[in-house]
Amino acid sequence: MAQLSLSKANTIIKAALAKATEAGMRPLSVAVLDAGGHLKAFQKQDGASLLRFEIAFGKAFGGLSIGTGSRTVEKFAKERPHFVEGLVAASGGRVIPVAGGVLIKNAKGEILGAVGITGDTSDNDEIAAVAGIQAAGFIADGGQG
């Protein structure tokens, strides 16, 4: 199984925050998880509000939980709320069902991990995550809206 290195995780964070700065986004928090849902790296920009680690982690964890970006989890929350309620309960409350959690895939389509970003709109969080993943040479999967 392919793995996500700490160096690549840090590249993702650096590029995501650079994209946020370039686009004038509000202060972001970025969590990078490995394929097993374990934290690989995290950074929180100055001025980011409370609970941002938990939200960023939950967006990434939610995507990993069902094998697609968290935009799909958000879609399921609207269309199949009973399923997402169960998913949140089964995860011990760790799943945050909104866009901004993006899977990290290699060229073979294998899931290496996920990035969760919070701090701006969910769409902007996702834009920053995709930029970070692509800058590290990986493929981003934000899910289907």
Automatic annotation (TrEMBL):
<dbReference type="Pfam" id="PF03928">
    <property type="entry name" value="HbpS-like"/>
</dbReference>
<dbReference type="InterPro" id="IPR005624">
    <property type="entry name" value="PduO/GlcC-like"/>
</dbReference>
<dbReference type="InterPro" id="IPR052517">
    <property type="entry name" value="GlcG_carb_metab_protein"/>
</dbReference>
<protein>
    <submittedName>
        <fullName>GlcG protein</fullName>
    </submittedName>
</protein>
<dbReference type="InterPro" id="IPR038084">
    <property type="entry name" value="PduO/GlcC-like_sf"/>
</dbReference>
